[in-house]
Amino acid sequence: MEEFTPTRYTLECVATGREFEDDGWTLEDHTSPTPSLVRARYARKQLEVKPDSYGFYKFCDWLPVRRMLKGSSAPVTYRSRGLARHLGLENLWITFNGWYPAIGAKMSTCSFKETEAFSVCARIPEGEKRVLVVASAGNTARAFAKVCSDNRIPLLLSVPYDNIGALWFEHELDPCVKLISCERGGDYFDAIHLSNLALKSGKFYAEGGAKNIARRDGMATTVLSATTTIGRIPDYYFQAVGSGTGAIAAWEANLRLIEDGRFGSNLMKLMVAQNAPFVPMYDAWRANSRQMLPYDDDKARRDAEIIDAKVLSNRRPPYSLAGGLYDALKATGGEMLVATNAQARKARQLFKELEGVDIYSAAGIALASLIKEVAAGQIAKDAVVMLNVTGGGEEHFQEGKELSYLKPAHVFPLNPDPAEVIATVEALFE
Description:
- The protein has a six-stranded mixed beta sheet, sandwiched between helices. Strands 12-8-9-11-18 form a five-stranded parallel beta sheet, with helices on both faces. A three-stranded antiparallel beta sheet has the order 2-1-3, with no helix packed on it.
- The chain is built from 14 helices and 18 strands.
- The protein is of the alpha/beta class.
- It is globular and about 60 Å long.
- The chain has two domains: 76-109 and 214-397, Rossmann fold (3-Layer(aba) Sandwich); 131-202 and 400-430, Rossmann fold (3-Layer(aba) Sandwich).
- A hairpin with a 4-residue loop joins strand 6 and strand 7 (105-106).
């Protein structure tokens, strides 16, 4: 293992500016009068990128981690030729998160959720006896399951039953990883509700989602990869969003890179897209509303069933709070976009033909939105554009492999009895 010295950092409340020490797993500033994210402020203001042998931890200067875990891989950024030529863009850069060994991309879960998992799990204090809880629509669960299994970190996953097909692995997992599900017809929000019930037991602790600085700063490595490869901060950042956490992380990385002083001073326009008809953040943004608009639960579940990119079906995203997606879009002059299943499928096929590898539905949504913006004349041909391909290479990775699937230890109804949930999950880790 490479030499590693944790980076010193403090925490800052976005809403108030209050700076304070991290107690080890701080997720929010309880003194803040309004809901707010907290940010890490790193002592090292200039980023020193470590050698590739560090894997994901080549960006450890700006990660709130205590150690390095084995088996990690960093995002890889390269200049597009085929897709760039097709779109008429002179400076299209693709940040690829997934399995594409030809360009050096070796995320074996094929998703940028690995950047979250390797960061969050490396933040866990030594000697933590409780069990980490992660709710997911699929890709996040696969990433955390692999990292926790490989590093023997106890983990309880909560994933909708309709999404457990995403929980494939090259090898059988360590029994320290357990899965519970909400029954058929449930969505990501139902999985979150189930995990929150489990967290009422003192034997478990919450990963924290967008509130966890390690999750956001892990995802931010996509922008660190792009900027240090290109040599400057991009003009545009394209990504599909379910929670918007990746885009928030991109904005925060952008601010650190400006402070670094070597990569320019521009704020990337965040161009983020949702998969129609599941578009609650798009609707709020179009209404110029900081608050999310009413969204009937049954309609939300039906819309979540329709979309190809199931991972984008978050009904309670970190949109409104201080430092959330609304603020990120306003600060960067960004835009909320939308693409359909059909447009994303066409975009995915185009990417495979022109760039040589398959990509996930969510990445297809991002590319479809880029295609539409170029067609509408919104992107100058010489603009420096970063396309965050948040997952891909699954077909390539799985070829010829006998896969192992994680099955639920228990499937709960959509409105389970809280006491039954607690008793069941506690028994899983006895």
